[in-house]
Structures are given as C-alpha cells and as structure tokens.
Design a protein that fits this description.
mainly alpha; single chain; 136 residues
C-alpha cells in the first residue's frame, strides 16, 4: 500500500509540473495576461494531490489506514475521482478562457461533482483515521 501511495503522490507531482508548464506556454503563445482557472490547476495537483497523498503515506506508516477495511478503499477511490474531475475542469475551463471561448453550465456542474467526490473522500479519510487511532 505504501508503494501505491508513493506512486499516487508522484503522479500528482508530475501532473502539477506538466500543468504549470502548460499554463505558462499556453498563456505566452496566446499573449494572455488576464486571470484564469488554468493558473490554479497545477497548485491543485500539488496541494490536493501530491501533498495530501504524502500525508496519507505518513498516516499509513503510523496507523495502518489500509487495514481499516472498506472505508480506506472508498476514500482512495472517491478522492482520486474527485481530484481528477476537479483538475480536469479547471484545466478545461481555463484553457477555454485563454482561447477566448465560453464554457457552459455543464463544466461548472462537473467541477461541482468533483468537489462533492473530494468531500466524500475526505470524510472517509477522517472516518478511517478515527478507526485507526481508536484501534491503536
């Protein structure tokens, strides 16, 4: 499990670097000087992806979260789905803004669903952590 968490954290770290590069190059190529959600996609990948999974890795090492059963697996699934959805919609909406295109309500709706999945994932993480602390 610790290898899986390390790889997940590394994935989001690499994704954050790629998104930062994409943001810089896309805005330069289009002479875009305004603000856009694209600028926050790489920070979401770093903070909510790489850093959170590094913290979960430390919690796993100390509390064996993965041994707490189904809630840990559900945390991992819900949190990753939510984070990918959120980052994808930030990237898509930001790209459309840089290119001068509008996005519809569906983009906001999908981003909202991503945040809901993230919230459920965090609730499951805290539930799992509470069980692990109690068992220790």
């Amino acid at each position: 499990m610790m290898t899986k968490l390390t790889r997940t954290s590394a994935f989001y770290g690499i994704l954050g670097l790629v998104l930062g590069f994409y943001y810089r190059e896309l805005t330069k190529m289009n002479d875009f000087t305004g603000t856009t959600q694209l600028g926050t996609s790489h920070t979401h990948a770093f903070a909510l992806g790489m850093l959170v999974f590094l913290i979960v890795l430390l919690l796993e090492a100390n509390f064996k979260l993965s041994e707490q059963g189904k809630t840990y697996r559900l945390f991992y699934i819900f949190y990753n789905i939510g984070l990918i959805m959120t980052i994808a919609m930030l990237t898509f909406h930001g790209t459309m803004t840089v290119l001068g295109n509008e996005t519809g309500a569906a983009v906001s709706g999908i981003a909202g669903l991503g945040h809901i999945f993230l919230t459920i994932g965090l609730m499951l993480l805290f539930h799992t952590l509470a069980k692990a602390v109690k068992n220790k």
